[in-house]
Amino acid sequence: MTENKPKAPSATNVEGEGSYTATHRYNEKLKKQIDNVDVHELAEQARKALEGKEGEELREAERRAKQGPPAQKPAAAPGRRS
User: What are the angstrom distances between the C-alpha of 29 and each of 3, 15, 21, 51?
Assistant: First the structure.
């Protein structure tokens, strides 16, 4: 019986920030998802949602998402009051 344990990193398989393995796995799963769903039906559902009563809420969510996360104030240095 073979176990599916993650391999410990070694000098030969360290990938750094850009993981080719993760990208490959993501691309495979994305292709499988696209091959197994009716993307035209999903697009039609999205169009109807945008034109329907939730359209304004969806456009507002899109606008906020495009702005990115809200800016945060830098933390005060230890021992100093802001």
Answer: 22, 20, 12, 31
Give the count of domains, the chain: 1
Say what the pTM is.
0.46
Whether the CB-CB separation of 49 and 55 falls below 8 Å is answered with: yes
Residue 35 lies in a domain: yes
pLDDT tens sequence for the chain (82 residues): 556 665 555 556 667 777 889 999 999 999 999 899 998 999 999 999 999 999 999 999 999 999 998 888 777 777 666 5
Q: What are phi and psi of 53, to 5 degrees?
A: -65, -20
Rounded Cα distance, 36 and 28, in Å: 12
Residue 24 belongs to domain spanning: 20-67
